[in-house]
Structure formats: structure tokens, C-alpha cells
Inverse folding.
């Protein structure tokens, strides 16, 4: 079970890097910004269901941390490039 959680956290982190880059390039609270923040969520939910990982108070903080860390790193990468 823990291997699946680590695998999913890694997937969430990597998936969110390009979305963080996209989010950093657009105006805050615009439609593209909204999509950059929310489009990865259904993919993550689908992957969690595919891996049969239950959503619980033990796993949820890891998923949220991976999500926001990927988004943050993506925004940092675009700011470093500029």
C-alpha cells in the first residue's frame, strides 16, 4: 500500500510541474489560471482509483503536499527562466 502512495505522490508532483508553469504565465484568477489549477485533479482522482488507494486522513496530506509542491516548483521554474 505504501509503495502505491509513494508512486501516486510522485505522479502528482510530476504532473503538476507543467501546470504550475502554465499557471505562472497567466493572469491570476483568469479562466486559464483556473484550468491550470483544476485540470490535474480529475487525472489524479482517476489514478488514485486505478491504483485502488482509499482517500483517508493518512494519505490525503501527502497528496495535497505533492500537488502544491509540483505547482510551486513549476511556477519557480518559469520565474527562473525569465
Amino acid at each position: 500500500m505504501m509503495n502505491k502512495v509513494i508512486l501516486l505522490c510522485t505522479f502528482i508532483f510530476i504532473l503538476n510541474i507543467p501546470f504550475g508553469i502554465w499557471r505562472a504565465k497567466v493572469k491570476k484568477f483568469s479562466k486559464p489560471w483556473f484550468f491550470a489549477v483544476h485540470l490535474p485533479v480529475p487525472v489524479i482522482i482517476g489514478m488514485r482509483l486505478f491504483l485502488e488507494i482509499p482517500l483517508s486522513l493518512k494519505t490525503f496530506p501527502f497528496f495535497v503536499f505533492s500537488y502544491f509542491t509540483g505547482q510551486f516548483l513549476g511556477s519557480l521554474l518559469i520565474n527562473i527562466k525569465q
Summary: Residues 2-25 form the longest helix (24 residues). The helical segments are 2-25, 31-38, 40-50, 60-81. DSSP finds four helices and no strands in the chain.
